[in-house]
Specification:
Helix content is about 10%, strand content about 50%. The chain is mainly beta. The strands form 9 sheets. Strands 24, 26, 28, 29, 30 and 33 form a 6-stranded mixed sheet that branches. It has a 4-stranded antiparallel sheet with strand order 1-3-6-5, with no helix packed on it. It has a 4-stranded mixed sheet with strand order 2-8-7-4, with no helix packed on it. The chain is elongated, with a radius of gyration of 60 Å. About 25% of the residues are buried.
């Protein structure tokens, strides 16, 4: 009996130990009981269990409305995800868990919603004018629930207007608008208009419950007191930089338009900017500059002017030859020079080789009617004043045909068997091309050389006769001639007898020919040649 009672006691102890190791079936909802969520965000409700190996989960609203979310079941827990959270999610959610023979359990959580996502938006016209009515609009985006909304409009800390939405019955998010009209004054420029929006729901824990936005007031006036300052001065030196700054009082800031009076009193628009900057001034930058300040809102304008005078050493603005720097002899030519400076320059225009001054005014010219080749060369223009001087050169190139063609013969007294050199020279632009011809027994001329110099070695009787030099370029040609004849022969007996016979045969005509020879020699000397050409041509 005692043994049986001992065995029973052991069995009871074993059962108690097993019961102690088995956990109780429990559940919870995270977050618990009550949650505040912002519309548009993400909300996850978790239903968690302990003490149940294979629980079964279900979710529903207490009003059996749609869940408005996605359920995801796991081994020991289940989640309900609402993304994004909307007004349809404003319910109490019930999670039911069944754990086989261990029964079921339920818990709920209440989801409360609000929407207050961003600061107010203030809209004030940028065209406020002092004394004129100005509407202020304040927008509070996507508010819920709007019947708690409070809006205040302040100017520089002082309340201008208050508005409440106590009787608003909106069932969804809405943008609420508050409009108020006030009369700004000139001293309001720069002050701030502030819109304060509050959503004070006492039993809901969220932040922020107050949002503000501010905007500065622009009260338009002007332009007025417009002035121009010139830096470094109103009379800078040529080559310096120049800053013209136009300052005016205007709200909104005035539009600046720079203009300049030209010599003929017409206006040239320069630039649209507060500062007119010229990095290197020139003499043509002198003049009267106008700054026009324009307020497009008040439709008011004001002008300021400044006179700028550029000083400095002369700058030659023109040195030219008309019709061209290269002309043909006989054309009319004009050489012109002008310069600018302040004070006005003295101008000297001259041909460098002559070194003669022509004129001393601010613009001079040289007129060469029917220009000659001697007029060609370098011309110089010099402009000077108390600050310095400037020089410039130009070259006049005169094209002309061959002139002063001359033939020289060496040696002057010819003998048979000697070497004779004949050289032809001629001036012209471009340089003439020289060629030689020799008169044949038939009376015709035969070209013998294209060189300016020809050399005859071992002079023979067949080398004697009339030679002609021709100088040629595209503007003309000139010819000169020379006749070669010997003044003495080699003293060989077999050559002297024929010479005596020949001499006696022409003795009858020697006397009348002597006069002709003297005349021709004189003409040859005048023409710079060595020949009897003109007389011989008359004879041929």
């Amino acid at each position: 009996m005692l043994k049986e009672m001992g065995r029973a006691s052991q069995a009871v102890l074993l059962i108690l130990c097993v019961l102690r190791t088995v956990k109780a079936f429990e559940m919870e909802i995270i977050p618990a009981e009550r949650i505040v969520a912002q519309i548009g965000g993400t909300l996850i409700l978790t239903c968690n269990t302990t003490g149940c190996a294979s629980p079964s989960f279900s979710w529903r609203t207490q009003m059996d409305s749609p869940l408005g979310g996605k359920v995801s079941n796991h081994r020991t827990y289940s989640t309900l995800t609402m993304n994004p959270v909307g007004v349809v999610n404003s319910h109490s959610y019930l999670c039911t868990v069944i754990c086989g023979e261990r029964g079921k359990k339920e818990k709920s959580v209440k989801v409360e919603l609000y929407s207050f996502p961003s600061d107010p938006i203030i809209d004030i016209s940028p065209s406020l004018v002092a004394g004129e009515p100005a509407p202020v609009i304040c927008k509070i985006p996507d508010v819920y629930p709007s019947h708690h909304l409070e809006v205040l409009l302040k100017k520089d800390g002082q309340v201008l207007h208050e508005e409440y939405f106590l009787y608003d019955d909106s069932t969804n998010t809405e943008t609420k608008t508050v409009t108020y009209t006030f009369h700004p004054m000139a001293e309001d420029a720069g002050k701030e208009i502030t819109c304060v929006a509050r959503l004070p729901i006492a039993d809901m824990d969220f932040e922020p419950k107050e949002r503000t936005s501010s905007q500065k007031l622009n009260v338009n006036f002007g332009p007025q007191n417009t002035v121009i300052t010139a830096s470094p001065s109103n009379s800078p030196m040529a080559g310096d930089s120049l800053n013209l700054t136009c300052v005016t009082q205007s709200n909104p800031p005035a539009q600046i338009v720079w203009s300049k009076y030209l010599a003929e009193e017409s206006i040239q628009h320069v630039i649209k900017n507060n500062v007119l900057f010229i990095s290197r001034v020139h003499f043509n930058d002198s003049g009267r500059y106008i700054c026009e300040a324009i307020n497009l809102v008040t439709n008011k304008t004001e002008e300021a002017t400044v006179n700028i005078v550029i000083q400095g050493a002369p700058v030659i603005t023109k040195l030219s030859i008309e019709p061209s720097t290269t002309v043909q002899e006989g054309q009319n030519v004009s050489i012109q020079c002008s310069a600018e400076s302040n004070p006005p320059p003295k101008i000297i225009l001259r041909r460098k080789s002559d070194n003669a001054d022509i004129g001393t005014s601010s613009a001079r010219s040289i007129f060469l009617p029917s220009v000659m080749f001697q007029n060609g060369g370098d011309y110089e223009c010099v402009a000077e004043n108390k600050y310095g001087n400037s020089k410039s050169e130009i070259t006049l190139n005169v094209k002309y045909g061959p002139k002063n063609t001359v033939i020289t013969v060496f040696p002057a007294a010819l003998k048979e068997g000697e070497t004779v050199t004949m050289k032809c020279t001629s001036s012209g632009n471009p340089a003439p091309v020289i060629s030689w011809k020799k008169k044949k027994a038939t009376g015709e001329f035969e070209k013998i050389s294209k060189n300016a110099t020809i050399t005859i070695q071992n002079l023979k009787s067949q080398d004697l006769g009339l030679y002609e030099c021709e100088a040629y370029n595209q503007f003309g040609k000139e010819e000169k001639a020379v006749e070669l004849y010997v003044q003495a022969r080699l003293e060989e007996p077999d050559q002297m007898i024929p010479f005596i016979i020949a001499f006696s045969s022409v003795a009858a005509v020697a006397v009348p020919a002597a006069a002709i020879l003297i005349y021709v020699a004189r003409q040859a000397k005048i023409n710079g040649s060595y020949s009897l050409v003109k007389a011989l041509r008359l004879k041929v």
